[in-house]
């Protein structure tokens, strides 16, 4: 009789693969990484994007860009462009691939500065994180694994959510 494969076994195998690929593993469900914890990743349970880590990553891969431009790029990343999920994902994909154009004034003329969200030429400069926490509606803590690039959109999720629950 075949042995049943448990979710925890799949997750541990995936974690080992990710670690070998260079992902940083953060147990976001541990007390020290929760809001208010010693190494809190987010200020509030509702925070999906890890804004501080995103800003740090953008500064690292865009060293010649001003702090103001980095802050504007973070705001643009966080801004929803559409109420339509597909359109919003397309908009995000565009800035992920093409970068964010930030307007500034120089000698009385409007110019643009590019802020890159991903360093395609030096991939090792990018920040790959595996975060194991998301808040599920009506459940304060539920472990859900997400792969994050600079703490942005999940590329893969391993999750177990009871019927009727929704991810915030």
Overview of the structural elements:
There is one protein chain. The protein is elongated. By secondary structure, it is an alpha+beta fold. A four-stranded mixed sheet has the order 1-4-7-8, with helices on one face. A two-stranded antiparallel sheet has the order 2-3. Strands 5-6 form a two-stranded antiparallel ribbon. The chain has helices at 7-20, 51-61, 67-78, 85-98; strands spanning 24-26, 100-106, 109-115, 128-131, 134-136, 139-142, 145-149, 154-158. The chain contains four helices and eight strands. It has one domain. It is 30% helix and 23% strand. Helix 2 (51-61) crosses helix 3. A hairpin with a 2-residue loop joins strand 2 (100-106) and strand 3 (109-115).
């Amino acid at each position: 009789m075949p042995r049943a494969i448990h979710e925890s076994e799949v997750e541990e195998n995936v974690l080992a693969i990710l670690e070998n690929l260079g992902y940083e593993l953060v147990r976001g469900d541990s007390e020290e990484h929760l809001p208010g914890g010693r190494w809190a990743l987010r200020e509030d349970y509702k925070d999906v994007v890890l804004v501080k880590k995103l800003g740090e990553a953008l500064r690292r891969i865009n060293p010649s860009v001003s702090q103001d431009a980095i802050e504007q790029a973070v705001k643009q990343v966080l801004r929803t462009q559409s109420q339509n999920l597909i359109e919003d994902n397309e908009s995000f994909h565009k800035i992920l691939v093409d970068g964010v154009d930030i307007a500034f004034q120089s000698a009385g003329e409007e110019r643009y500065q590019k802020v890159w969200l991903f360093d395609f030429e030096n991939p090792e400069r990018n920040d790959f994180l595996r975060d194991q926490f998301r808040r599920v509606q009506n459940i304060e803590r539920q472990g859900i694994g997400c792969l994050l690039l600079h703490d942005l959109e999940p590329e893969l999720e391993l999750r177990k959510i009871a019927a009727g629950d929704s991810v915030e």
